[in-house]
Design goal:
This protein has about 100 residues and is an alpha+beta fold. The protein has two helices and five strands, in the order E-H-H-E-E-E-E. The chain is globular and about 50 Å long.
Length: about 100
């Protein structure tokens, strides 16, 4: 149990669950699950992301995640993917430093 009055288990997604979580995610966006070929191309992004999922037994019923993305602003150099966490973190956006308030 996860502290709530429910049988849904919310936790970090394990690597062997990525595909089932991806299927739930794509269905929520009204797309079909990825084919084996598409999954082979997408797996690397799942290995590098922060991923949490909700499970009802062995069935994934929800997913939340954070993908690292490169940011590009016209006229500025491309910025590498940076993750923003907490008040002391920062990102480079379009070559300029940005700090959250």
């Amino acid at each position: 149990m996860n502290g709530f009055d429910t049988d849904i288990d919310v936790r970090e997604t394990h690597p062997d669950e990525f595909r089932r979580a991806a299927n739930t995610f794509t269905r929520a966006l009204m797309f079909p699950p990825p084919t084996d070929e598409q999954w082979a191309e997408r797996l690397a992004t799942w290995n590098d992301m922060v991923s949490f999922s909700a499970w009802d037994g062995d069935r994934c019923v929800g997913h939340a995640g954070q993908f690292a993305l490169a940011t590009m602003v016209p006229g500025a150099p491309a910025s590498p993917p940076e993750r923003c966490r907490g008040s002391g973190s920062w990102q480079h956006i379009g070559g300029a430093e940005w700090r959250p308030d």
